[in-house]
Design a protein that fits this description.
Length: 70
């Protein structure tokens, strides 16, 4: 499982958007990190587990967010 290290001021929805391109990924992110759900605004240095982004969510990313395979 991938991880994400928080920076001061991160929020669940902001992290979800930066990882998956949608704030709705926040639920999966919180479920993967039950020990940290008490945070609303994160301090720096918290390591979060990042679950796999569902294909349906990943396929809706705009072209500039997709990895270049060339």
């Amino acid at each position: 499982m991938k991880t994400y290290r928080t920076i001061q001021g991160d929020t669940w929805d902001g992290i979800a958007f930066s990882i998956a391109g949608k704030e709705s990924f926040m639920t999966q992110l919180m479920n993967a990190n039950p020990d940290h759900v008490e945070f609303v605004i994160f301090p720096a240095g918290i390591i979060l587990n990042v679950p796999e982004v569902p294909v349906s969510m990943a396929s809706t990313l705009p072209p500039w967010r997709l990895e270049d395979d060339e």
